[in-house]
TrEMBL record:
Domain of life assignment: Eukaryota
Keywords of this entry: Disulfide bond, Membrane, Repeat, Secreted, Transmembrane, Transmembrane helix
The organism of origin for this protein: Oncorhynchus tshawytscha
Name under which the protein is recorded: Thyroglobulin type-1 domain-containing protein
A cellular component term, taken from the record's GO annotations: extracellular space
Cysteine-cysteine disulfides: C102-C109, C146-C165, C176-C183
Pfam families: Thyroglobulin_1
Alphabetical list of CDD domains matching this protein: TY
Length: 210
């Protein structure tokens, strides 16, 4: 729409008349112009509405057509059961079990196969770095003696000696008892090597040389 600026700045009669003429011209053109615009807008709106409805139907259909997977059924059942501490399975976007599952209340994590069944030897207690299930290429290493001993000690009395294992699950050459501060060297079976124990505050023996 044209704005009439002239009357404000130019008070001369001629200019005002000219403006009036322009205004009339504009008014005469407006009905046909706006009718065309309205028709175009109506068509555009109709097309947009159809596109919106069709895409909405597809979006709804997508969510509704795929039946729930066993993981999703198990998850939804667990979530309805609002008791705190209940294990809620974790599913990916396709509804499949995620390779790693954790219990929020106990802090335990473990690996599952595609049926959601726990793979033996993959459970890790809270505070222990969980096994990265997805990078194990389907074959998950069973726990080593060091890892079994560590996990058992984690459940034992507070202050008990907890073995230290490396990434491959072997005993690290040096072991320390956190609560007493004693350290010693072990052989690959985790057995203490005689004469290597050092009390807290004393220089430790380099077990790697042993
Ligand atoms: C998952 O593990 C369970 C128990 O070990 C087994 O019965 C089932 O066949 C496994 N499923 C797949 C798809 O490997
Ligand atoms: C994982 O499995 C694939 C196919 O079986 C194989 O080619 C690849 O070498 C495996 N990777 C590891 C780290 O085992
Ligand atoms: C570790 O030490 C224990 C006790 O000395 C011994 O019985 C065992 O054979 C040793 N293990 C290895 C792998 O050397
Ligand atoms: C122990 O000895 C090894 C081999 O000589 C050396 O590489 C390492 O840095 C030493 N570690 C410490 C804590 O002194």
């Amino acid at each position: 729409m044209r704005k009439l600026v002239t009357p404000v700045t130019g008070p001369l009669k001629g200019e005002v008349e000219e403006v009036d003429h322009n205004l009339q011209t504009t008014e005469r053109e407006t009905p046909s112009e706006s009718l065309g615009t309205v028709q175009k807008e109506t068509i555009t709106m109709a097309i947009l509405t159809i596109i919106l409805l069709v895409s909405t139907a597809f979006a709804l259909g997508d969510g509704m057509i795929r039946p729930k997977t066993p993981c999703e059924i198990a998850r939804d059942t667990a979530m309805k059961n609002v008791r705190p501490g209940v294990y809620v399975p974790m599913c990916d976007n396709d509804g499949q079990y995620k390779p790693e599952q954790c219990s929020g209340s106990t802090g335990y994590c473990w690996c599952v196969n595609s049926s959601g069944q726990k793979i033996p030897g993959t459970e890790t207690p809270p505070g222990i770095a969980p096994i990265i299930c997805s990078t194990q290429n389907g074959t998950i290493r069973p726990k080593t003696p060091c890892e079994d001993a560590r996990d058992a000690a984690t459940h034992g009395p507070i202050g008990a000696y907890i073995p230290t294992c490396d990434a491959a699950g072997r005993y690290t050459p040096e072991q320390c008892w956190g609560s007493t501060g004693y350290c010693w060297c072990v052989n690959s079976s985790g057995q203490k090597i005689q004469g290597t124990e050092t009390p807290p505050g004393t220089a430790r023996i380099n077990c790697s040389i042993k």
